[in-house]
PCI domain-containing protein (Erythranthe guttata), 259 residues
Amino acid sequence: MDIEEKQSEHIDFFVKQASILSGPALSNVVVQATSHPSLFAFSEILAVPNVLQLEGTDSSTFLDLLRMFAHGTWSEYKRVANRLPQLVPDQVLKLKQLTVLTLAETEKILPYDTLMQELDVSNVRELEDFLINDCMYVGIVRGKLDQLRRCFEVQFAAGRDLRPGQLGSMIQTLDNWLTTSDNLLVSMQEKIKWADTMGEMDKKHRKEVDERVEEAKKTLTLKANMDPRGHGEIFSELGGVMDYDQDRSRSKRRRHPIG
């Protein structure tokens, strides 16, 4: 079961909890959801009417906190930490994990220096332990640690909740991808059609060559059978020549008798 499938059950649970509670009681739901080790998406919880009704109330900071976990990063939280509830250790870990996902959305090569700055990590060993134990082992990212180049090569990263206004950009990106895919498909179909045509032409050419070879064989055989001289006449001519040479030899022997 992948990370998305694991989350769906947890999302359903917290959505149901948020739907039957209201006011200050929702603060516990927010804390539990943002602390859960297998939950990394919060847009469904944010969409619950009871949660949205926290806006403008004494518990509105928990709504802002939930939005931070849906779209924000650790560095963004630090800039407004004085206006949000203080995080427990599990929430700190979760927000740092989400920060890695945000960085991986736009860059597939993440320098160690950038990661250490964004995650408040002081050394490479601590960073690599975090990436291995709290990111790759959990299943939210896959990649390769390159100690020589001091970077993390991202091969896969789970998606985060879309920020407000980001949906239009994603739709445009998908439209562009679909157009490119359609053009590529048409190009491939044209090349396949061209290859099929060339294959048929090659077969036709081979058949014509084979037919011409067979025709040439038949013609040569027919000419050989129709030769009026035949092999016997040739042997007769050779015999006549041999008789002529023998007569000359006997004549020479009569003119010079051995004395």
About this structure: The first strand starts at residue 109 and ends at 111. The chain has a mean pLDDT of 84.
